[in-house]
C-alpha cells in the first residue's frame, strides 16, 4: 500500500440484537454458528447457512423449530441433522446492523456465533478510525460489549487467513472427540498427567473421570490419536509455507 504498510484492525465484539438468531438462543439451549452469509444490496435480505448445536437432541429440536417459525425468517430449509447437530439454510428479512459495518468499510472476517441471546462478531477494518466510527454507530442503536481490538501487522494479518485450512483441520480433530474422550483428555491436562514428573496416574485419572482402569488407557489413546493426527496434518500444511521446509540445517 502506497504511503505506508498495511495494518488491519480487528475487532471482536458481543452484541444483543433483535434478530431471529439472537431471540432463539435467548430462549433455547442452542448455539447457532453462521459460517456463510450473503447480504443482498437490492433487497436487504441476508442468506445464511446456520450450524446448530445443543447438549442434546430435544434441545436441538426445540431450537430448530423456534428458528423455523421465528419472525423475520422468510425462508427455512433443514439440510442435515445428526445427533445434537444440524445445518439449515435460512433467509432473514433484514440485517441493518451488518449494513452499518459495511457502510463504514468494515468486513466480517469470521463466522457469527449466537449463544444465550448474544451474537459474537469478528470484524476487520483498514484503519482504527473506521473501526471506532462503526462501534460508535452500533453503540447508539444496540447493546454491545467490545471483547478485543487488535491491530494486525503485515506478517500477522496474512497468516490469520492463509492458514484457515490448517485451523479447520485442528478444529475437526477436536470435534471428532466423543464427550468422554474430551472429558478425559481435559482432566488429564488440568490435573498434571502430562507433567514431568506426573501429578496424576492412569488409575487416579480413571477414578477422577469415572472410567474403569481397563478403559481409561484406551480412551486417552483414542483422544490423543485424533488430536495428534489433526495436528500433524495441520503442521504439514504449515511446513509447505516455510521457506526452508524439507531441507536446511537447524541451529
UniProtKB/TrEMBL annotation:
It comes from the Archaea. Residues 177-228 form the HTH bat-type domain. Coiled coil: none annotated. InterPro entries: HTH_bacterioopsin, HVO_2525_N. Keywords: Transcription, Transcription regulation. Pfam families: HTH_10, HVO_2525_N. Residues 11-143 form the HVO-2525 N-terminal domain. This is HTH bat-type domain-containing protein. It comes from Haloferax sulfurifontis.
